[in-house]
Design goal:
CATH class: Mainly Alpha
CATH superfamily: MFS general substrate transporter like domains
Helix content: over 70%
CATH topology: Growth Hormone, Chain: A
Order of helices and strands: HHHHHHHHHHHHHHHHH
Number of helices: 17
CATH architecture: Up-down Bundle
Oligomer: single chain
Low-confidence stretches: 202-212
Strand content: under 5%
Structural class: mainly alpha
Amino acid sequence: MSSSTSSINISKARFATQAIFLVCGLGISSWAPMVPYVKDQLGLNESSIGLLLLFLGAGAILTMPLTGWLITRLGSRRVILGSTILMATALPLLLLMNSPLTMALMLFIFGSGVGSIDVAMNAHGVQVQNLSDKPIMSSLHGLFSVGGLFGSLGIGFLIRSGLEPLWAAAAISCLLVMLVLSQYKVLLDADTEQEVIARFTHTTSETAPSKVSWLHGQVIFLGALCFASFLSEGAMLDWSAIFLRDTKGVEESLAGVGYAAFSVAMAVMRLLGDSIVSRISSANIVIGGSLIGVAGFGLIIFSPWLVVTLAGFVLVGIGAANIVPVFFSEGGRLREVPSSVAIPAITTIGYAGQLAGPAILGFIAQHTSLPAAFGFTALLLFLVAVAYFMKSRGK
């Protein structure tokens, strides 16, 4: 180990990286309880709100490839800081937009911050995992889910305590920036990060990152499976509150409880995920988890009882928890594609499911029903199980 990497406190670097995943989870989940307010404030139907959500996804997806380029030049920690400030600034401003056009613009900006920090934190996490020489991606994503819990419940608690939604969102934004600043110096700097990439890459010196690498079959396959998996998370984020309020008759101030149940289950499973991944094959995690998620959506759609519906949200969280970390870990070990290309590519394709996919669900809901849109999501999870089963059988 060289002098620069030997001086790194891996435990502190891992903790700091966990904090960044927490920040991302807090930021994006704080948007979930705000969706019904925005829907009512602008007088939108499901199709229209779905179209607006497409701008959030567009901002993220268009920013993700640029983020990979920025990371190679500035280092991921600088990108993390800048994208956090962008996301935190846009969050409360979403509640000040008074027209669909301005809301679309602000959602695009918010999505750009979310997409950028997502790529940067996963790229940083892969390098810290390489230094740790043991699985940590599940626990990192577990902190994202913890953030999802506290972001969703935190906004609801502040609003129920009498704080205006705008000021509740502003308080969350201040917390995001403070958390990143407190851990900034512990994150890997640009020089150290590049040294780790050079030491742990699985590609040969002749394998240069290029646009063609994005089209590699393994990258496309993992990205497509991530798309379906993330779409289920996006359905929880953007549609769970509206589903519980409009379909199940839950009080608006409590409409975030479904996403909270989903986040708690996912957080627990991901925090336990590193030990699970070390004991259970990737095939069992992906196939079994997908089928558990399908069962969860079945309960959400068909159960007439709220408690059972919430159990469905829990099952979706348990099933989906460790699927995506497995995909990211596989992406970081591809022999024919550099990790500096594979991770942004898989992230971009995958997060299209979380950020742009809910717009598709909005159109489905408008022309059929929101339960039918959730059924479509369950079908995609089932296809993930089938595709990965075929892949595992083909080895």
